[in-house]
Specification:
GO molecular function: beta-lactamase activity; carboxypeptidase activity; penicillin binding
Distance between the termini: 138 Å
Number of helices: 21
Strand content: 15-25%
Largest sheet: 5 strands, mixed
InterPro entries: Beta-lactam/transpept (IPR050515), Beta-lactam/transpept-like (IPR012338), Beta-lactam_class-D_AS (IPR002137), PBP_dimer (IPR005311), PBP_dimer_sf (IPR036138), PCN-bd_Tpept (IPR001460)
Shape: elongated
CATH superfamily of the largest domain: DD-peptidase/beta-lactamase superfamily
CATH class of the largest domain: Alpha Beta
Catalytic activity: a beta-lactam + H2O = a substituted beta-amino acid
Pfam family, one: Transpeptidase
Number of domains: 2
Keywords: Antibiotic resistance, Carboxypeptidase, Hydrolase, Membrane, Protease, Signal, Transmembrane, Transmembrane helix
Helix content: 25-40%
Length: about 650
C-alpha cells in the first residue's frame, strides 16, 4: 500500500493541532477559571484548617490567671505599715481523683444492683447522680483526713462542691481555708508528695499595726476580675481567674494602679472533660510597686494612744509646715484592718456601724471651729484695718447685738483687753465687736482666701465637699433670709453655719506658720519635695508678732493651760508653741454637746510642724474643752517630734530674730 504522507512537493497540506486562533481564545478563560477554582479550594482548605485548629485549641486549652501580690506601704522612715502574709489552704486537685471517683462509682452501682437483685424496692439513682455521690464521698474522705490531722470538724458543703465542679473543675478545690501556721506545718509533714491533697499558698494583706491609721491606709476586698496585658497569650481561651484583691478605701484604693501586682498565669491543655493534661505556657505574677507615705508612725501612735484614752470620737492631723506632707492623720473610733483580711465578717461590719467608725473624721467630719476660728477673724480684721496689735475692747462679760446679749466664752468679764490677751483668753466680746466691725463678707472672703470652703486635694478618696463658709448671699439663696448682725457675731467666734474639717484647720496652721495663704497636703513622701511657696499673708511684722504673742501666751497661761492634770502646760522644754483652743457647741436630740479644738504650730522661731486636733463630746452638759482634751493630744505629738528631732529645735532667740525669719 502506498504511503499517504508525502512531502510538500506533492501538493498535499499538513495539519497542526491547536494552532487555530479561535480555539486559543476559547481555552484562555477556561484555564483562568480552573486556576481561580483551584486557588479558592486551597484558600478554603487553609481557612478550614485554621478554623479547625482554632476550634480544637478552644476546646482543648484553658487559661488560669493568678493575681500578683500587692506592693507594700511604708511610713516616711521605712517602717512597714501594710504588707503581705502567706495564706494557707488545704486543697484538692480534682483531676487527680478521677480514677478514685470512678472506683467509688462502680462500688455504689454494685451496691444498688445487689439490692435490686434480692427484690427490694429501692429508688435507684441515675448514673449522673451516682457519679455525684461518688465524688462527694471521695472528697469528704480527704476532708476527714485533714480534720483528723488538725483536730477540726469541718463539714463538706455539697452545693459548693457541685458548683465548683461544674464551673471551675480545672482549679483546685478549697477544703479548708486560712490554716494557722502550725496547722500548715502539721499537714505538710503528713502529706505525700504525689497526693491530690496539697497545701496551697496565696498572699493576703497584713497590717502590722492593726488599727493604726486605718482610715488613711484603707483596706482591700476580693477581686474576681483580674486581667493581664494584651501580650499574655490565650485571650481567646476559656479563662479561669484565681481570686485577687483590690483597694476599696484609703491609700489602698487611691494608689490602686501602683500597688496592684501584675497578674501571671498558665495555659493548659485539657482533656475532653476539662481536666488538666499538661502546661503549655506560663508567666509568673509580679508584685506591685511599693508606696512610701508621708506618715511618721511614731507620731501617729502617740496621737492615737492619747485619743483612745478618751473613748470619744475625734481627729488629729499634723503636717510638715514646709512641704505640706502629712505626718499624722488619726481618726477615732477606728477599726482593725486585719479584720478585713482576707474578708470582713458581718459581726465586724455591725460593730463598725454601731461605733460610727467608718467616718474618716480628718477629711469627712464637718464641725464648727469655735474659738480656733478667731485667728482667722484676726487676720481678716488686720486686712480690713479693724484689728491691730493695740486694738482694745472693754469686756463686760457679754456683748449686746440689737436686743440680744451674746456672752463671753466663760461668762466672766475680762475688762480692758488687747489683741494678744484676747487671743490667749479667747475673749468672745473682743471678737463680737471687731468681727462686726470687719463685716461678714470680709470674714468670708478671708476664709476662702485661706482655703476654707473648698477641698484640700489630699490624696484620699471621699474628702467632704460640704464644708461651709456662709455669707449674706448664701443665706439669701439657701434659706431665703437676710443676713443679720447676729449671724456675723456667731461667725466671729466660729459658730453659726461655719463648717470645717480638721485637715483644713491643719493646713490653715501650716500656712500661718509660713506666712502664706495656702498649703496643699500630701500623703506621699518625697525627699526632694520643695518648700511650698504661695501668696503671702501680707501681714506687717508688728501684726504678725501680735498674733504669735497671743498664740504663745495661750499655750503658757491661757485657755490651753487648764487642760493638764499630768502635764503642767503645753510647753515642751526648749520648744516654743503657738496655739489656740476652741470649743464649739452643737445641738442634738439629747442636748448640746461640745467639739473641743486645739490648733498650733512649732517651733515659733522656725516652724516645722502644724497640728489640728478635734475631740467630739458625747455627753450633753459635759464640759469638753479644747484645752482639756485636744491640747494634750497635740502635746504628745510635739513631745514625740521633739524627742526624735532635737536638732530642729532652735536655740533661744529674740523676737526680732523670729520676725526676721519670716
Amino acid at each position: 500500500m502506498a504511503d499517504n504522507i508525502t512531502d510538500g512537493s506533492s501538493g498535499m497540506v499538513e495539519t497542526h493541532k491547536g494552532s487555530n486562533p479561535r480555539l486559543q481564545f476559547f481555552y484562555i478563560p477556561i484555564a483562568i477559571g480552573f486556576m481561580t477554582l483551584a486557588i479558592g479550594l486551597v484558600i478554603q482548605q487553609v481557612l478550614r484548617s485554621d478554623l479547625a485548629h482554632e476550634k480544637e485549641k478552644a476546646q482543648s486549652q484553658r487559661r488560669i490567671l493568678v493575681p500578683g501580690p500587692r506592693g507594700n506601704i511604708y511610713d516616711r522612715n521605712g517602717e512597714l505599715l501594710v504588707g503581705n502574709r502567706p495564706r494557707f489552704s488545704a486543697v484538692l486537685y480534682l483531676d487527680e481523683l478521677r480514677a478514685e471517683i470512678y472506683r467509688e462509682y462502680v462500688e455504689i452501682r454494685k451496691a444498688y444492683r445487689a439490692v435490686e437483685a434480692v427484690g427490694e424496692d429501692v429508688d435507684v439513682p441515675s448514673s449522673t447522680q451516682m457519679t455525684e455521690i461518688a465524688r462527694f464521698t471521695v472528697v469528704d474522705r480527704y476532708l476527714q483526713k485533714v480534720n483528723h490531722a488538725l483536730g477540726r470538724e469541718t463539714e463538706l458543703n455539697a452545693r459548693n462542691l457541685r458548683r465548683h465542679f461544674n464551673a471551675q473543675r480545672i482549679l483546685p478545690y478549697n477544703l479548708i481555708e486560712d490554716l494557722e501556721p502550725d496547722e500548715y506545718a502539721r499537714l505538710l509533714e503528713q502529706l505525700p508528695v504525689n497526693s491530690p491533697l496539697q497545701v496551697y499558698t496565696t498572699s493576703t494583706r497584713y497590717y502590722p499595726h492593726d488599727n493604726t491609721a486605718s482610715h488613711v491606709l484603707g483596706y482591700v476586698a476580693a477581686n474576681r476580675d483580674i486581667e493581664v496585658d494584651e501580650e499574655f497569650p490565650g485571650a481567646e481561651l476559656m479563662t479561669f481567674r484565681m481570686v485577687g484583691s483590690e483597694g476599696r478605701n484609703g491609700l489602698e484604693t487611691q494608689f490602686e494602679s501602683k500597688l496592684q501586682g501584675e497578674a501571671g498565669g498558665t495555659v493548659y491543655r485539657v482533656n475532653s472533660v476539662g481536666y488538666r493534661v499538661e502546661s503549655l505556657q506560663r508567666r509568673l505574677p509580679v508584685q506591685g510597686e511599693n508606696l512610701i507615705t508621708s506618715l511618721d508612725i511614731d507620731l501617729q501612735l502617740a496621737a492615737e494612744k492619747r485619743m483612745r484614752e478618751y473613748e470619744m470620737a475625734g481627729a488629729a492631723v499634723a503636717l510638715d509646715v514646709n512641704t505640706g506632707e502629712v505626718l499624722v492623720m488619726a481618726s477615732v473610733p477606728d477599726y482593725n484592718l486585719n479584720d478585713f483580711s482576707p474578708s470582713l465578717s458581718q459581726a465586724a461590719v455591725d460593730d463598725i456601724n454601731a461605733r460610727g467608725a467608718w467616718l474618716n473624721r480628718p477629711i469627712q467630719g464637718l464641725y464648727p471651729p469655735g474659738s480656733s476660728f478667731k485667728i482667722l477673724v484676726t487676720l481678716a480684721g488686720m486686712r480690713a484695718g479693724t484689728i491691730g496689735p493695740d486694738t482694745e475692747t472693754n469686756c463686760g462679760g457679754y456683748y449686746r447685738v440689737g436686743r440680744r446679749l451674746f456672752p463671753c466664752h466663760d461668762g466672766h468679764a475680762h475688762g480692758q483687753i488687747k489683741l494678744h490677751t484676747a487671743i490667749a483668753k479667747s475673749c468672745n466680746v473682743f471678737y463680737y465687736e471687731h468681727g462686726l466691725e470687719t463685716g461678714a463678707q470680709a470674714l468670708a472672703d478671708e476664709a476662702r482666701r485661706l482655703g476654707f470652703g473648698s477641698v484640700t486635694g489630699i490624696e484620699l478618696p471621699h474628702e467632704s465637699e460640704r464644708t461651709l463658709i456662709p455669707d449674706p448671699a448664701w443665706k439669701k439663696e439657701r434659706r431665703g433670709q437676710s443676713w443679720v448682725p447676729g449671724d456675723t457675731a456667731n461667725m466671729s467666734i466660729g459658730q453659726g453655719d461655719v463648717l470645717v474639717t480638721p485637715l483644713q484647720m491643719a493646713t490653715f496652721m501650716a500656712s500661718l506658720a509660713r506666712g502664706q495663704t495656702t498649703t496643699v497636703p500630701h500623703l506621699t513622701h518625697d525627699p526632694e519635695r520643695a518648700v511650698q511657696r504661695t501668696a503671702p499673708l501680707g501681714l506687717s511684722p508688728a501684726n504678725y508678732a501680735a498674733v504669735l504673742e497671743g498664740m504663745e501666751e495661750c499655750t503658757i497661761s491661757g485657755t490651753s493651760r487648764t487642760s493638764f492634770t499630768t502635764i503642767k502646760s503645753m510647753r515642751i522644754p526648749g520648744l516654743r508653741v503657738a496655739g489656740k483652743t476652741g470649743t464649739a457647741q452643737k445641738r442634738t436630740a439629747k442636748g448640746t454637746v461640745n467639739f473641743a479644738w486645739f490648733i498650733c504650730f512649732a517651733p515659733i522661731e522656725r516652724p516645722q510642724v502644724a497640728i489640728a486636733v478635734m475631740v467630739e463630746g458625747d455627753t450633753p452638759g459635759e464640759e469638753t474643752g479644747g484645752g482639756s482634751f485636744s491640747a494634750p493630744v497635740a502635746h504628745d505629738i510635739l513631745a514625740k517630734w521633739a524627742e526624735k528631732f532635737p536638732e530642729l529645735i532652735p536655740a533661744p532667740s529674740s523676737e526680732a530674730a523670729v520676725l526676721a525669719a519670716r
